[in-house]
């Protein structure tokens, strides 16, 4: 049975632990096409906690279903984006079997990845550990030139998480990903080790969020959410051969050409006006979406230890 989720009239009314959500433009009483999702522990440099992870998961579930939201901008409160996991609190890993553990950062990364709305990560300050890996499923990452960024897990006796072994090599190549992970080093945003991980690297940290919002506004006003959602899925979950890609793309393209967003996109271009895309990506995806076999990450049921 499907679980019913209540979509709030205003995201600013939600009381979520260690994060907050703001509408953009500000002072809107209801949800806006752009929402700002902030890690909100500035006194702890936004160090990640299990409660923060649960809040982020909840927020992304809501954004996925809410047709009013088109773009999510993820940033941090204060001078740092995220100082990695709060090591004083730990990882909420008290389970009997390793097979039952699901790393919290990975659950956040999957929630972002599966969300029908794209994320722009605005790293206004330094980020390490899960502060970096949680941003890998984002569509765009913007950072500050002089802040420091790194995947420091091996320097803490840990392995990478947040699905980084999947995302990072695909984003920057195996060679650069291997260098970042095996050194565990921390580098400025312009370091050659990051390759093209960051879409933009800005001279001033205070300029990162405004620039992210500028891009978000351009996307919200000009891009079909359904077309964006399907295009991202084709790239992340596409076949491994050009022939397979051709067959799948043709099928999805045929579906898209029959949607009202295609007609609106053409008409708005010919009439030299802003498009008004109305296709909800959650409701209007192709009938065979997802076209891949999804892996079930749920922890299986356990037998009762009580005697019959």
TrEMBL record:
It comes from the Eukaryota. This is Uncharacterized protein. Pfam families: ECH_1. Coiled coil: none annotated. Belongs to the enoyl-CoA hydratase/isomerase family. InterPro entries: ClpP/crotonase-like_dom_sf (IPR029045), ECH/Chromodomain_protein (IPR051053), Enoyl-CoA_hydra/iso (IPR001753), Enoyl-CoA_hydra_C (IPR014748). PANTHER family: ENOYL-COA HYDRATASE_ISOMERASE FAMILY PROTEIN (AFU_ORTHOLOGUE AFUA_1G01890), PTHR43684.
């Amino acid at each position: 049975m499907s679980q019913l989720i209540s979509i709030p009239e205003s995201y600013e009314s939600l009381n979520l632990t260690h994060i907050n959500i703001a509408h953009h433009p500000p002072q809107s009483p209801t949800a806006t096409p752009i929402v700002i999702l902030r890690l909100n522990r500035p006194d702890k440099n936004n160090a990640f906690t299990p409660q923060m992870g649960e809040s982020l998961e909840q927020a992304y579930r809501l954004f996925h279903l809410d047709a009013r939201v088109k773009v999510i901008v993820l940033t941090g409160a204060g001078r740092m984006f995220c100082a990695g996991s709060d090591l004083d609190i730990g990882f909420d890993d008290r389970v009997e079997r390793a097979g039952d553990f699901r790393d919290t950062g990975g659950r956040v990364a999957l929630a972002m990845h599966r969300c029908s709305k794209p994320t722009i990560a605005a790293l206004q300050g330094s980020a390490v550990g899960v502060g970096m890996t949680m941003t890998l499923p984002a569509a765009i990452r913007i950072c500050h030139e002089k802040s420091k960024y790194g995947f420091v897990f091996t320097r803490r006796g840990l392995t990478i998480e947040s699905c980084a072994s999947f995302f990072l090599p695909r984003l920057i190549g195996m060679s650069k990903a291997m260098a970042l992970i095996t050194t565990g080093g921390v580098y400025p945003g312009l370091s050659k080790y990051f390759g093209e991980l960051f879409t933009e690297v800005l001279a001033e940290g205070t300029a990162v969020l405004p620039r992210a919002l500028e891009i978000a506004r351009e996307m919200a006003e000009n891009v079909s959410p359904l077309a964006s959602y399907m295009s991202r899925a084709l790239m992340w979950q596409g076949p491994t051969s050009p022939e397979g890609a051709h067959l799948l793309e043709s099928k999805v393209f045929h579906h898209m050409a029959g949607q009202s967003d295609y007609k609106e996109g053409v008409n708005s271009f010919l009439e030299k006006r802003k498009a008004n895309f109305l296709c909800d990506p959650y409701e209007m995806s192709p009938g065979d979406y997802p076209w891949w076999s999804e892996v079930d990450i749920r922890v299986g049921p356990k037998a009762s230890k009580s005697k019959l």
